[in-house]
Amino acid sequence: MRILTAILATTLLVAPAQARGPDFAASVEADYKAHLEALFLDFHRNPELSYKESRTAAIMAKELRAVGGIEVTEGVGGTGVVGVMRNGKGPVILVRADMDGLPLKEDSGLPYSSSVTQVDIDGIEKPVMHACGHDVHITAMIGTARQLARMKDRWRGTVVFVVQPAEERIGGARKMMEDGLYTRFPKPDFALAFHVAAGYPTGRLVLDPGISSSSSDSVDIVIKGVGAHGASPHKGKDPIVMGSEIVMALQTLVSRDISPLRPGVVTVGAFNAGFKHNIIPDKAVLQLTVRSDDEDTRARLLAGIKRIAENVGRMNGLPEDMLPEVRVGFESTPVTINDDALTARVRGAFAAAFGPQILYSEPRDSMGAEDFAYFIQRDLGVPGAYFEVGGTPQSAIDAQKKGGKPVPSHHSPFFWVEPQPSVTLGTQAMTVAVLDLLKK
């Protein structure tokens, strides 16, 4: 009986402390109601496409300047913004948030839905939506900056806030690096970022060591043919037939060309050719996405795509100067790998601040990509930690598991997350991580 009483007493003492969260949680909640909520709603109603985020970048620059004590530079790597907050001698921490939306017409039914359109970099006007939660990320970055400014007596060092463009085209991080992110501004000792996740419940954080996101390469295969009348196929070289052969042959790369113990994806997402029933066109274009979890597999898949495309052309009698052209490297990112030691430290900080129940884990079930990888490649010597913040109420997830309404996925026109718990926990978690890494 005495043992049971002791256990109950311990539970009563510990549980409230775990549920309370960090000691500045009330400040974050108040800041959300007073300032961050309106900011989030504005971002969600007015999303912008990759490389076109001028309005969003201007607001982020204005908000960072308003915090006070932050040196703000705009136009880094295109529309990127960098804010440097210095607070004495100490480590340098990079905090990154991506800001671009997606070319989707929103159908979420939210009262603050986006209805805007924008001319994309291809010259075509498209509807735009925050269908991946980047509005949460940039709002939480402002929340984090405001909290750190209020608590300068608790930390020493430098925080570099990186507002990154074009994550959806997996090119913005690389452009910022090429524009001198690590030479024009303080080079970080650690780099942090988070992503709101519709598949995880609100109030939970996901941070595991090792691979966080797969590599991704967009690949175009341009197939040149010889146009002809559909009734006289022998007088031409049909790029649609060659394209079809390439599509089918590509399926052997993962199933027969790489080890079954190494994951890989080769998906043909678009096949564009022709415009009339009875005309054999002179060109077809395939658009692919390629995913892997290690550089050897990545290189093998890309080499295999080139080999298959060119040899299908040869098999169909094309001369060497007309072989299918394989274009790669215009949208690509390496694997994102969380540093083991940094991950353990940040996980410990989360557990101490929120209680161990905050940490949530499920096996990876997709090969999503993330160009945060460019900031933490091993040759740079910058360890990174990329975590996820739950964005969907547990009740909605439970209902889905029981056969109810499915939780909309990222990149869906129906996508939504709960803004208040997502923004506030994202703000609290990032602030906790930075405070731990920069504590006196």
UniProtKB/TrEMBL annotation:
NCBIfam families: amidohydrolases. The keyword Methyltransferase does not apply. Residues 1-19 form the signal peptide. PANTHER family: METALLOPEPTIDASE, PUTATIVE (AFU_ORTHOLOGUE AFUA_6G09600)-RELATED, PEPTIDASE M20 FAMILY MEMBER. SUPFAM superfamilies: Bacterial exopeptidase dimerisation domain (SSF55031), Zn-dependent exopeptidases (SSF53187). Keywords: Hydrolase, Signal. This is Amidohydrolase. Gene3D superfamilies: 3.30.70.360, Zn peptidases. The keyword Hydrolase applies. InterPro entries: Amidohydrolase, Bact_exopeptidase_dim_dom, Peptidase_M20, Peptidase_M20_dimer. Residues 215-312 form the Peptidase M20 dimerisation domain.
